[in-house]
Structures are given as C-alpha cells and as structure tokens.
Specification:
Membrane topology: Single-pass membrane protein
Organism: Flavobacterium rhamnosiphilum
Order of helices and strands: EHHHEEEEEHHHHHHH
GO molecular function, one term: metallopeptidase activity
Radius of gyration: 18 Å
Shape: globular
Number of strands: 6
Number of domains: 1
Subcellular location: Membrane
Number of helices: 10
Strand content: 5-15%
Pfam families: Zn_peptidase
Largest sheet: 4 strands, mixed
Length: 286
C-alpha cells in the first residue's frame, strides 16, 4: 500500500508506552485473545465464558511504565495516522457530495489498557469505536494475534481495512444509523437483535470498501495483493470462522458480525461500486 507523504492529523493520538495504571489483560496471551474475540463476536458463549476467562487472567497485572517508542513503533504510528488522514479526506468528500458536513473522529493508539467514554477497555477489546467520544481505539497487538493465531494473511492493507471498518461505525453514528438500529433492537429476541447487529457490522464493511474505492481514485494507494489482504482479514473475523476455531462448531443465531463470506461480499460491493446508497444491509435481513 502506498501511504507515505500524507499530512498529519489533529485527531491522532499515540499513547503507546504511557502508563495505563491498574490491572491489564496480557494481550499476547491465549486467554487475552480468546476474550478479545468473544467480546468482538458476541453470543451466549461470550456471556458465559468471558467472566470465567477474565477470572483466570486475574493476577496477571503488570504495572506499565512510560517508555520511549522504538523506531518501528514510530513508523507504525505514522502509517496509522496516514490511514486516518485518508479516511478524513474521503469521507469529507463523500459527505460534501451529499450536502452534508463530515465531523472528523479521533483515533487513539494504546497499549494494554485505556479509559474511554464507553468505559475502561483493555487489549482484549480489540479495535473499537466509541460513539460517546467519537473515537477509534486500537492496540496494535491485535493484528499480530489475528495473523498468528487465526490465520489472517496480515499486511498493511489488512490494518487499513480494520481502521476503515471502525471509521464506518463513525459514519453510521453521524448518519443516525446506529441509534436507529438500537431502537429496532428494543423488544426483539436475542436472535433477532443479533441479526440487526450483523447488518450494522456488514454495513461498516461496505463503508470500508467505499473508502477503498474513493481512496484508490484520489491517491492511487493500492498495490498488488492489497485487496487480498483485506479479504483475508475479513474472512478471519467472520463469526463462523471465529466460532469454528474457538468452539469447534458454529451457532448462526449467535452471530453478531456476519459470516466470512458476508463480510467479504459487502467489502467488495463497496469497493466495486463506491456508491453509499447501495449499502442497505438491513434490507437483506432474513
């Protein structure tokens, strides 16, 4: 992926190496990654197993000390900031084309643990967007775990896809889609509420594809293999792929993010069309 030479962003913050205080879940441990994936992909198994696994992980607290970032970490930060800048430019253009004003979100990198407007979070939360402060939070250890333990191809565009997905949730917040979805979930069974959650997540994948479409036209960013990296990451984080690896079988009614095939389909639809009006994932609910 071609990413160098971007401007800096006022909305990027790098807290890696800073003291987080309190207890942290060891992001590189198998317990941490299982909690991470259960939190990300939900369902009854997450509700039952997460407290047990967190209890197993108690006592593995490590006091984090402030330290200087390595040269490699500094370069990682520059890359993440470049992706954020590209999302600002693309969504600013799309909103302007639709007579709207895009409000730029913030992106914060952390290590181990962080305080957010949505509550305290650890590495086990995975990358996430908090509508309370309109900020994306990321511990980059997630990407190594996703590659080494769950078979994602890796690569810089896999990271870009995840960031673009989280920014997609910000777009949904600005457009009111997220709040409408929560209203629609009221009074629904868990299975029906999960279907609505799947639609929201697949739409964020679609928006990630739209961003890729526009960014390629504006900045000529793509290199050979980049789309394959994104599709590999989308496949690895499908509900069916995660459940198969963790528990050996799948429970479709507990899906909250969509299958591997669904996630790849909606990313590619956004990438091929670049048309935000074609991302009504809710209309395809079954």
């Amino acid at each position: 992926m071609k990413w160098s030479g971007r401007r800096s962003s006022e909305n990027f913050e790098d807290r890696r190496g800073m003291s987080s205080g309190g207890k942290t879940i060891i992001g590189g441990g198998i317990i941490g990654i299982i909690i991470l994936l259960l939190n990300l992909f939900g369902g009854e198994n997450a509700q039952m197993l997460t407290p047990i696994l967190e209890q197993m992980n108690q006592g593995q607290s490590t006091p984090t000390e402030q330290r200087a970032l390595t040269a490699a970490e500094i370069e990682e930060g520059k890359f993440i900031e470049a992706i954020l800048v590209d999302t600002e430019d693309v969504w600013g253009k799309i909103f302007q084309e639709n007579n709207m004003q895009y409000e730029r979100p913030n992106l914060l990198l952390f290590t181990d643990a962080v305080e957010t407007a949505c509550g305290n979070a650890t590495s086990a939360s995975g990358p996430f967007y908090c509508p309370g402060d309109q900020k994306v939070y990321m511990d980059l250890a997630f990407f190594e775990e996703l590659k080494t333990r769950f078979g994602a191809q890796g690569g810089d565009f896999a990271t870009a896809y995840v960031i673009a997905h989280e920014i997609g949730h910000h777009v949904q917040t600005l457009l009111g889609t997220s709040s409408k979805m929560r209203q629609m979930q009221e009074g629904k069974s868990e299975a029906e509420a999960n279907k609505l959650s799947v639609a929201l997540e697949l739409q964020a994948d679609f928006y990630a594809g739209v961003w890729t479409h526009y960014n390629q036209k504006m900045n000529d960013i793509l290199e050979e293999g980049d789309i394959d990296e994104a599709l590999s990451a989308a496949h690895a984080v499908g509900d069916d792929a995660i459940q198969s690896k963790i528990q050996g079988h799948i429970v479709p009614e507990s899906f909250t993010h969509g299958t591997s095939e669904q996630r790849k389909y909606w990313f590619m639809k956004g990438y091929k069309t670049g048309d935000i009006t074609q991302g009504n994932t809710f209309s395809e609910l079954r």
